[in-house]
Amino acid sequence: MDDYHYLGAELDVFARAQNWKRYLAAQMASFVFGDVLEVGAGIGAITQALAPLPRRTWTCLEPDAGLAQRLNSAVRAMAGPDRISVIIGALRDLPSAANYDCILYVDVLEHIEKDGAEVSAAVAMLRRGGHLVVLCPAHNWLYTPFDRAIGHYRRYDRCRFQSLQPPSASMVRLRYLDSVGLGASLGNRLFLRSASPTQAQVLFWDRVLVRASVLLDPLLGYRVGKSIIGVWRKA
Fold first, then answer.
1. With contact defined as beta carbons under 8 Å apart, do 57 and 85 qualify?
2. Contacts of 119 (CB under 8 A, 6+ apart)
């Protein structure tokens, strides 16, 4: 495994976005079952939100050793820690025989240069009928200095997701999330140009804008948003 260190410092700020994590859990719940692999688990914010869902085992994969140490502490504080394990490394470091029913990438794929190869490798590690669930920041025209600072190669749209289609899987969900937050991101892109969101900004987004998006997104048919979620099912 390479000696990897995550560039960003925003994980603790976004870890307090409780409404956003609940929204993601509701969007992903029907695909999370059996043996789950979470790639790029960070400090465990998504783990804490999703691991309580019905499943058999949960494996957290994190390439940054420092983050993995914090992740271990978070896992130990959760109920049923014997069913959650932490591995330091990337997908390529796992045994080739590993098989999962669900593999999660939550705000991770945009950090990987060869995203198509990563998607194909992840699908190969799924059991038949398993799901690959990927959430990414949406729209390259929203790319900001903040994206660059935390190591994003790109942002995503529907066409980019569809171009990643692996031959052994079919897409069963593709939708944008956080329509109200999109307006705030556009305002920042055009006017504020903030290099990094403050804690106050994140809390306002989570407590006000996310709540509004939960109501508005389905009315818009999930066609608008600052994040995009895609789910592939292995044949």
1. yes
2. 109, 132, 134, 164, 166, 232
Domains and CATH numbers, the chain: 11-234 (3.40.50.150)
Written as one string, the DSSP assignment of 106-160 is ES-GGG-S-HHHHHHHHHHTEEEEEEEEEEEEB-GGG--HHHHHTT----B-HHH
Question: What tens digit of pLDDT does each residue of 76-124 get?
Answer: 887 654 688 999 999 999 987 779 999 999 999 999 999 999 999 999 9
Tokens of 22: 């609940």
d(CA 49, CA 47): 5
Residue at token pair 């289609």: 165
8 A C-beta contact, residue 107 and residue 37: no
Sheet with 169-177: strands ordered across? 84-88, 57-62, 35-39, 100-106, 126-137, 227-234, 169-177
- Residue 109 is predicted with a pLDDT of 97
Task: Decide if 142 contacts 190 (C-beta within 8 A).
Answer: no
User: What is each CA distance from 168 to 65, 165, 221, in whole angstroms?
Assistant: 33, 9, 28
| Distance separating alpha carbons of residues 47 and 88, to the nearest angstrom | 15
Amino acid at 33: F
DSSP element (H, E) containing 217? helix 210-219
Q: Lowest mean pLDDT of 21-25, 28-32, 76-80, 107-111, name the range.
A: 76-80
